[in-house]
Amino acid sequence: MIPIPATRLLPWRQFTRVAQLTGLGAMLAFLPVFNVGMSLAGFVLAGAWLVDLVLDVLEGTPWRKFQRFVSNKAALVLVSLFVLHVLGLLWTQDFDYGLKDLRVKLPLLFLPIVLAGLEAISERWFHRLMHVFLVAVVFSTFTSMWVHWGWVDRPIGEDVREITHAYIARISHIRLSLLAVLAMAYATFQASRHARRAVGYVVAVGWLLAFLWTIESVTGMGLALLLLGFFMLRLVWTNAGKTVRRLALAGLLVIWAGSLVYVGTVVRDYFDVEAIDPNALEEKTPRGEAYFHDLENQQLENGHYVWTYVAWGELASSWNARSTFDFNGADGRGQQLKFTLIRFLTSKGLRKDADGVQALSAEDVQCVEKGIASIAEVGAGGFRSRINKSLLEVDIYRNGGNPGGNSVTQRLEFWRVGAHIFAEHPLVGVGTGDVPAAFEQAYQDTGSTLKIEHQLRTHNQYLTMGIAFGVLGVLWFLVAFVWPGRMQGAFKRPIYLAFFLVAALSFFTEDTLETQAGATFYAFFQSFLLLGVRWRDQRTDSLR
User: Fold this and answer.
1) Extents of the domains making up the chain
2) Among 147, 149, 345, 508, which residue has the fewest nearby CB atoms (within 10 Å)?
3) 304-305 and 533-534 as β-strands: parallel, antiparallel, unpaired?
C-alpha cells in the first residue's frame, strides 16, 4: 500500500482534533450531571482515536499510536490497574461476575490508551475545557437547588441529599460533592491568576460551599476547607512578603481551629449527659403505671437517656388521643412512630408517660408525625444536623442496635465484615469475581444484624482491593495510583494535587472504582491531567 502524503490527510486530522476536543468537553460537561452523557463522551473520544489510527495507517505509520503508548510509562502503569483485574480472574470462582466487573472498569483501560495515543492538547485548551467543567458543576448544583427551593415539583424524601438526582442532575451526592471540591480548587487558582475575573471565581467558590453546606456534606465541606485553605496559603507563600504570609497562616489556623472547635462543641453537647442515680429512679408514674428502665442501654438523645422512665401503656393511649397517626404504626419517614415519640420526648427532657405526651405542643406533635425524632432537629440544619444524626447512629450501634439504613454505622459494619474477609484471604484475595459471594458468606459467618437489602460491600476502595487481590494487590493499586503522577512531576501542579487528594480521600469512604461513574471519574482525570495535556513547564508551581 502506497502511503498517502500527510498534507492530503490534514483536513481529516483536523476533524479528529475537533472530535477529540468535543469528547473531552462533553466528558467534563457530563461528569457532574449524568452517566449516559459520560458514556457518549467516551464513544466520541474512542471514535476520534480510531479515525486517527486509520489516518496513521494511510500515512504508512500504523504503529505510531502503539509506540506512543508503550513509550509512555505513566500510561502503562495506569493501564496496569485494569490488568490486575484481568489477572484476578485466574483464581476466581464466579467468572461471569468477574467479566461483568471488567466491563464496569473498562474506563481504566481505554481512557489511558486513547489519551496517550491522541496528540496532547495545549494548556490554553485545557483551561477552556476546565471552564466547561466549572460551569457544569455550578449548573448541576443549581438544578439540584431548584428542587430544594420548590421551584420544580419533584418527589424527594426527608434526606436533603436526594436533590442531586431528582431533576436534571442524576448523580450521587457524594460524587457531586467531590466534583464540587475539585471545581472550587480550580476556581481558586484561576482567581489568583486573573484579577479581573477574580470576583466571578470567588462567587462560584462561595456558591459551591453553600451548596455543600445545604446538602449537609460533611466529607465535601471538610475536604473543601482543607484543600482551599492549604492551596490559598501556598499561593500566598510563593507570592507575598513575610508579613502577609504570617497573616495568611494565622487566618488559616483560625479557620481550621474554629471548625474543629465547632465540631467538638456539637459532640460535647451531644454527650453532655444528665446524671442518674439508679437507686433513686421512680418505679411508677403519677397515674400508677410501672416505669420501664433499661440502664444497660445507654442510648442518648439531646443529653438524656432514652430508655428510662418509659410507660408503654400510657404512651399508647395518650398519643392516640392526640394524633391520627397510630402509636404502633409508621411516622412520615416510615419509621416506627412509637420509637420516634420516645426519642422526641427524651430530647425535651420529658418522661415517656401520659404527662410527657400532654406536655407536647401541637407543633411538637406534628414534628413526631413527620418523623422528627429530636427537638434538636427543629430549626437545625447543615453540619450540626448531620453531625447529630451521625452521633445518634454511632450511639445506637454501640448499644447493640441494628446499623441498617444509617450511612455511618452501615459503613462500620461493612468495614468489619470486609476486614474479616481480608483476614481469611490476606495474600492474593478472593479474585475479581468472588467479592460479592465472599461478602454474602461473611455476613453469615460474622452474625451481622444487617438485613439482606443492606448487606453491601465495603465502601472503602483500599479494603475492596485487599479483599479482591490481597496485600499484593493493594500494593499494586497504590503504585498505579501514586507513581504515574510522581514520575511526571505532576504533584507540583496544584490542579493535579487537588484531584489526587480528592480521589485518595474518597477511597476511604467509597468503592469509587466499583461503579461506572466512579471508574470514569478516576480514569478520566488521571489520564487527562497526566497524558492529555502538553504542559509548558512541569517544574512550576503555577497552573501554567
Assistant:
1) 1-62, 83-119+406-544, 121-272, 278-380
2) 149
3) unpaired
